[in-house]
Amino acid sequence: MLERDGLIVRTERPGQLRWVEYELTQVGRSLLGPMDVACEWTRVHWDELLDAREAAVGATGQLSEAG
């Protein structure tokens, strides 16, 4: 999906030990700033997120299918 959407380039390297290389495209690199912001938001709100998850578990011990 990331390759299809133009965010990465996948290059297969032939040889005795074949390997695959992935590289962000310019469009993919443009997401690094917004991702940093999302990661920082998560760090700031981590305890709240865990509290909400624990509250959603309730008596069943499982998250609902919707959550």
Automatic annotation (TrEMBL):
Taxonomy of the source species: Bacteria, Bacillati, Actinomycetota, Actinomycetes, Kitasatosporales
Pfam families found in the cross-reference section: HxlR
Record InterPro entries: HTH_HxlR, WH-like_DNA-bd_sf, WH_DNA-bd_sf
Domain HTH hxlR-type span(s) in chain numbering: 1-50
Protein name, UniProt field: HTH hxlR-type domain-containing protein
